Structure formats: C-alpha cells, structure tokens
C-alpha cells in the first residue's frame, strides 16, 4: 500500500513485446522529495519502465501507484501530478522560449494572470531571460534542455520523470542541469531519472537501481552499491621506512609502495572493518589513512556482465 511519503510504488511490473520480455517483475519504491536513478545498458528496459510509470504505455502485469494514484484506474490524476522530459526535446523550435512556455500553460488550463507569473518565474529560474523572446531554433543544446525542463514544470508537478535528460550535452551544460535538479528536490519535488552517465547518478541520486535484461539486479545508495563489487582498499601512510616495514610484517600480503611510504589493504567499505583495522595500529605508526571504494563504473560493469549467468537481484538495506 502506498504511503504519503512514497511518490512511486511499483510491484511486479512486467511488459513484453511478443516473445521478448522487456520489463520482468520490477519492484521499487521512491520516497517523496528524493532522486531515484535507474541505470542500465541500452535495451535494459529503462525507457519502457518510464513510459509505463508516466501512463504512456500500459503494463502487462503488476501494480503501479504514482503520487498515491493507481496508474490504470486513475491515469488522469497521475498525469496531473507528473511532468515528463524525454530523451528528445519537446521544444517547438519555430516558437520563442516564452511562447513555448505559454503553450504549456494553455495546455495546462492555467488562468492568464497565473500563466504569465509562472512563465516569468521559469524564464528567470532557468537563466533564459535574454533568450526568452528569440526563436528556440537559435538556442544551444543546453539552452534547449533547460527550456524543455522549464516547460515540464509549468503546471507545477511534484514528480518529474527525466529520461536521459543530459544526453548530448557538453559537460558544463550537464552540470548546469544537475544544479537545477538539486534545486527542484530542495523544493520538495521528486525526480525519477534514467541515465547512462554513471557520474550523474553518483552526483544526484539518493538511491540507485541497476536494470539489466528487464530485471532490477541491484538497488541501494551509491555507497552501498560500490560495496557490492571488489576493488575497495585502505591506504595507510607510514611515518617512516621502519614503521612501514613493521606494518608490512603485521599485514602480510598487503601492497607496499616504499617510495610513497604507503601500504594498501583490501577493504569492503564498511565502518566496522575500518574500525577494527585502525584499532590494530599505533598512533605514531601511521600519519594518514585514505579509504578507496569501487566506483559506479565497476558496479555497472560487474552487474551487467553477460559473460556469466544471471544471479539473483541484490537489494541493499536502506
């Protein structure tokens, strides 16, 4: 049952095209006012999932509630509660930026006075003041994406689906859009994001799901997912060569760099393991400690590697 704190709740979501199962029993919950990122390779089922959640495509099986409303029985209420920005811009390039926003206000049945107020506020918020009365065909890629997202917000949705919103953008434009997403979340908006940019998910998401072959193969915070794969280690900085030798005797098999006076030990990323390690070391032996974990690239490659048989999905407790 969806609670007031859940913007999205999905149970047993399935979708097939002929004999091809595109979404295969997905379960997930997204709390209100958070960012949920759905990662996965091409063809994993990300866009299909977004289309089902946003009422653009019917599911074959499963239950979906968006903002407390059932997607099948209350589709109109769901649509009134959400905004959707797809991979490809919905901007009409023959219209000016302001005209695009006014068009969305008309489609949302906003009264004229309120529409003008909303349009003016969005033009300022998305840094489009100087370009607002120019045709969108003259806009850069980053400006078009900002306008596209502004158009999504005209009706004031509390849940936004962003389907690979920064595809094709340069690094500066991508980071500008990240800033806008953070501002939206600080205002209480929930964001459901699909992306192939792992740095994007790491930067923005409160919780991340990894979709592969239509199945949610792992879910958790970025830190929790990084602990699922090997590669983490602790690096100890010794005070001098003699103490480094002492550390090497205490931790046989560790990797040693005599030039840098460092010793590296495998680490699972847990605080408990780190505390045990530090408890074994004298204060005057080590002058610095650095903890390194696997990054999301490692997680993504490990969880979507088709060279081994698919294992069960891995969900990390919140």
- What is the fold named in CATH at topology level of the largest domain? Rossmann fold
Task: Identify the strand order in the major beta sheet.
Answer: 6-7-8-3-9-10-15
The top-level CATH class of the largest domain is Alpha Beta
**Strand-residue fraction?**
25-35%
User: Element order, helices and strands?
Assistant: EEEHEEHEHHHEHEHEEHEHEEHEHE
What's the alpha carbon Rg, rounded to whole Å? 24 Å
For the record, the CATH architecture of the largest domain stands as: 3-Layer(aba) Sandwich
Shape: elongated
Q: Give the overall pLDDT as a whole number.
A: 87
Helix % is 25-40%
Oligomeric nature of the chains: single chain
Task: Outline the structure in words.
By secondary structure, this protein is α/β, with parallel strands linked by helices. It folds into 2 domains: 6-91 and 139-226, 3-Layer(aba) Sandwich (Rossmann fold); 233-292. 34% of the residues lie in helices and 27% in strands. It is built from 11 helices and 15 strands. It has helices spanning 46-53, 75-81, 97-107, 112-125, 141-153, 171-186, 198-204, 222-226, 241-250, 271-279, 296-303; strands spanning 6-17, 20-31, 35-39, 61-66, 69-70, 82-85, 159-163, 190-195, 207-212, 215-220, 233-238, 255-257, 262-266, 286-292, 314-315. Helix 3 (97-107) crosses helix 4, helix 3 packs parallel to helix 5 and helix 5 packs parallel to helix 6 (171-186). The chain starts with 5 loop residues before the first strand and ends with a strand.
